[in-house]
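Moderator note: this is an archived Q&A kept for reference. The question asked for a predicted structure of one protein chain; the sequence and the answer are reproduced below.
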Amino acid sequence: MSALQGRSAIITGASQGLGKAIAVACVRAGANVLLTARSEETLKQTEHELKALASQQPGQIVCSRAGDVSQSEACEGWVAEAINRFGQLDILVNNAGIYGPIGRIEDNNWDEWLQALQVNLCGTIQMCRAVLPHMRSRKYGKIINLSGGGATAPLPNFSSYAASKAAVVRFTETLAEEAGDD
């Protein structure tokens, strides 16, 4: 039996890079996965590749849905779809993220700066908010929130990325305390 056989996961930012590597590992370990990312074309290619891996395990499901984690409707829709398709949702991997504008804070486009916070921090929070009622009702769930170097050391010229990733760390610590008894 594979380590994640019978488990189901949503992985955000799953079309490339680290998110795709996490998705590959989950599929190889036997999990059903719902892949999300903004780029539908890249996401569909990743879904196709992972379905080929999953074909070795009867009944394993790999699906994808494009969208933006900064939109609460997308987050709620992904969770509903995962529960509908898989019957349950066990794992959430919040990997989606963007760097935002690069340069001195006073030279950054303010709307782009805020968009990085919307994706990196608010997207993580919205996905957690959407999945927590289901996980609490089952008394089971794993939430993995990814951060980055911006959370551990100053990153000059990457202020929106660094601020948002530092906030993800504190949010995650707070959520762990808040949800730990469940």
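Archived answer notes: The longest helix spans residues 110-138.
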